[in-house]
Structure formats: structure tokens, C-alpha cells
Amino acid sequence: MKISVIGAGYVGCVTGICLAEIGHDVFLIDVDSGKLEALRAGKCPVFEPGLNDLLAKNHRKIRTTPDVSEAIPETELTLICVGTPQNGDGSIDLRYVIHAAQSIGRVLRSKNNYHTIVVKSTVLPGTTENVLLPVLESESGKRAHQDFGIATNPEFLKEGCAVQDFFHTDRIIIGAQNQKTTTLLEELYKPLNAPVFNTNIKTAEMIKYVSNAFLATKISFANEVGNMCKAAGIDTYEVFKGVGMDTRINPHFFRSGIGFGGSCFPKDVQALIHFAELQGVDPKILKAIIATNNDQPLKMINLLKNHLDIKGKKIGVLGLAFKPGTDDIRESRAVPIIRQLLAEGAEVVAYDPLAMPSFSSLFPGIRYAQSAQEAINADAVFIVTEWDEFEDLDYQGRLVIDGRRIKKAQKEAAQYEGICW
Ligand SMILES: NC(=O)c1ccc[n+]([C@@H]2O[C@H](COP(=O)([O-])OP(=O)(O)OC[C@H]3O[C@@H](n4cnc5c(N)ncnc54)[C@H](O)[C@@H]3O)[C@@H](O)[C@H]2O)c1
Questions:
Q1: Ligand 1 centroid, distance to 130 Cα (angstroms)
Q2: At what angle do helices 265-278 and 201-232 cross, to 10 degrees?
């Protein structure tokens, strides 16, 4: 199948390159010329294990362009993968998806063949039908479901193992209004042999938000239980080992720690809160998830104060990415932690195997170490992201405040405090 993908970020690159791997011809479109140049040079603009190799292997099947009007006439299906960031009031900023829909619509006006538009960006229920569909109709002068197809196909990849997730997904959710569109999407993903759930458009949109909100709930719940367990002298990891053996519960997403970050959970939970309120529902549980998540990282500062006076001290911060395996720092827990350390007069030396370039544009004034071992040569060490290499450091003689349960630090450090243990 010939497909175009608008937005060559995490979702667009992973989806486009992996679709090429399963046999499709792909046009990757982005307004960011730097990303397109990187792709042309054979380097993926986002870091995902295995993605550069797949790009090299499939380079003949992947083309790039900044211009929608070059790609759409040559393809039968367009996946919208542009960002949907958060507005100040928790709602989502639709400007990029609307812009993408406008540019697709303008090209469709003069395209004679049937074309299908698929929204992969995360958008609140109703957005595809009430916002994007009218834009496509007015720009193209054509009728949805009749002259062009429209669907939602939410993305569930996990950064850091997104390629793996693409090929071994738990499910593919297709939100569509007619059989023709459903069949086309089933055909697109057929080589994956994955379970497919067909539903209507706004239900598919809701499934994405509810999935992320539930995972975020598990994390905040595990953190609240972890706080109780620390105070009561109980090992929260042992507790969740026992709890997770119940098949109704399952053992995943119960790693008590300093909370979740990233480009999805915080913004998606906020957006669902906003959506609930628009429906006249007070989302008490969702609000508590965010409140717990906001409190959690700053507990590291309070724990440190039990050991030393922060002012003037050198604090090594291990981990800046919002989780291991990615260079993504969006909503990373390192941000509020470092901001607070600086506000309290600390000198910060940070290290991350991938995320230092992006973090240094946010915090140009702190020091960045060449290695993790160099960063822990400090008055105290904060462990913020659970990179594997932090299990290999020499923590002897160190004061460590651990947000992620690094066993070697727990065993070796002269003074050690876990956030929830
Ligand atoms: N990152 C994830 O883990 C993840 C997982 C599931 C869903 N999502 C959702 O997928 C969407 C994309 O997320 P992302 O992390 O890939 O974002 P991203 O910021 O990494 O990438 C978005 C890309 O779209 C490009 N873009 C914006 N407007 C454009 C336009 N009009 N034409 C062409 N390109 C345009 C930007 O330049 C950027 O490269 C969001 O809605 C997000 O919530 C993300």
C-alpha cells in the first residue's frame, strides 16, 4: 500500500519506518527540515532502539518531503501523527492537527482517487468528527465517508521499545464509520497478525485516553502505597509482587518511585480531566493521580534535607530522560527536581546517556558530566531515571537518594534513602 505520514516525530517515524518494513511504500512529511535532512542522511531524528537499522534496510521504500501536495496524490492513505500538546487549561492544542487537516483537504480538492485520512495523534473524543472532518470537507469541497474516508487509529507505543511494540502490539484499535475504511486499515496492518478491535471513531478516541489514564492511575496508586510502606517499614515492591499475582490485577506498572513523565501520561490525564468537566463530571480520581504525581519527585528534596543542608552542596543527578531508553525529556521528573535543587542553592552536576543535549537547552546553567561515575562524585546523588548503567556504578561512600530503586546503590551506598522504601 502507498501511504503518507504527516509528522516525523516519535509516532510518525516509528509508524512510517515500521510500515515500510512490513511492505508498504511510505512518504514521511514534516515541516521541520532538520528532521527530513536527518532521515535522508539515514539517521532517525528521534532515538528508538532498532529504528536506524530499519530505516537503512527500507530506505528504498521511504521518501521524505515537506510538501503534502507532493505526497498525497501518490498515496491512498494518510496517517496524521503530529503533536497535540497541552494548553494552559489542560485542554489539547489542536493547531497542528487542524493545520494538517487543512493541508490535506486542499490537496484532496484536486485529487480524483478516493483517499483515506487516519488520525493517529491523540485527540479527545469528538475531535475527529466535530473538528477535523469539517475542516477536511470545507477545504476539499468533498464529503466524508463518501468522497474520502476518515478514521482514528490511536497509537499505544512506549518510547524506548516502540519498534518492538509496533511488531508485537497487544491490539490495534480502529475507529471508523464504514466497512470500506475499516477494511483498508485491517489490510494495512495485516502482516502484523495482531488482534484488531473495530469500533466507532469517538470510542476509539476514548480508548486511548482511558488506557493512559488507567496506567497513570496504577503508577500514582503504587506511589501512594509506597509512601505508606516507607513510613510503616514495609517493602512496597514485595507488596506489589504479591498483589500482582492476582490475574485480575496483573504485576505491571506498580514500580513505586518518583512518578510518571513523558509526552503522554501527564497531558492525556489533564485532557481527560478537562473532557470530564465539559461533560459535567467531577473527575476526582484523575485529579488525585496528578496531585500525587506532582508531589512525588519533590519528596527527594525533603529526604535529602534529613541528611544535609542543601545550600552550596554539589548534587549529582543521575538520569534526565523521562524514562530509560529514550532521549525524550518532556515532563521528565528531573525538571522539577533540578529546579528545586537550584532554588535551594545547590550546585547540580547531571548525567544522562542520551538526554543531555536536549536537557542543556532547558538548563544551560548546570554542569553536565562526561560519565555517570563523574556525576556521583558529589556531596549527594539523586537517582532520577533507572538506566541500566546505574546498576554498575561504584556507590561506596556515597549519600544516595534513590527515586527508582537501583539495587547496587541500595546495597553499597554509605547512606541510602529510597523514595518509597
Ligand atoms: N510519543 C509517544 O510516546 C506517543 C505515544 C502515543 C501517542 N502519541 C501521540 O502522538 C502524537 C504525536 O506525538 P509525538 O511524540 O510523535 O510528537 P513529536 O512532537 O515527536 O512529533 C510531531 C511532529 O509533527 C511535526 N508537525 C507538526 N505540524 C506539522 C504539519 N502541519 N505538517 C507536517 N509536520 C508537522 C513536527 O515538526 C514534529 O516533528 C501526539 O498526539 C501524541 O500525544 C505519542
A1: 21
A2: 120
Average pLDDT over residues 378-400: 98
- Give the number of the atom of ligand 1 that is nearest the alpha carbon of residue 263: 1
Ligand 1 pocket mutation, candidates 27, 72, 82, criterion most atoms within 8 A of CB:
82
pLDDT for 237 equals 98
pTM (2 decimals)?
Answer: 0.95
Best substitution site from 4, 5, 6, 11 to test ligand 1's pocket, by max atoms within 8 Å of Cβ?
11
Helix extents (H) in 279-365: 284-305, 334-343, 356-362
Residues with Cβ within 8 Å of 51's Cβ and at least 6 positions away in sequence, in order, are: 13, 14, 17, 44, 162, 163
11 pLDDT tier (thresholds 50, 70, 90) = very high
Is it the case that residue 90 has pLDDT exceeding 90? no
Ligand 1 near 8 CB (within 6 A): yes
Could you tell me what percent of the chain has a pLDDT over 90? 99
Rounded to an integer, what distance in angstroms lies between the CA atom of residue 40 and that of residue 171? 31
